[in-house]
Give the backbone structure.
Amino acid sequence: MNSPLAEFELLVVLAALRLGGDAAYTVSIADDIQQRTGRVVRRANVFTSLRRLEERGLVATRLGDPQADRGGRPPRLVRVTARGAAAARTTTSAIQAMIGDLALGKGK
């Protein structure tokens, strides 16, 4: 069974999948999460999560081409591995199973 992801790890993996391997890097992932969730995202937290995800084999990184807007520095591009995609599926399936037929927002 795939190891489930923590909430923020799941957001990072989903953003990386959405952006794709040629556009996913720390800044773009943080921006995507912030735009879609309204949550303030620190780039350092994304960087730390990416490092941990890479250690677990859930993402792989490589240096992209140098970019003028980054002072000539290349971004470290992120690709979600098959194991990472499977972990995202496992986690989202568990969340969906728990939500099930709950009437959220109505309280008891």
Observations:
- DSSP finds four helices and two strands in the chain.
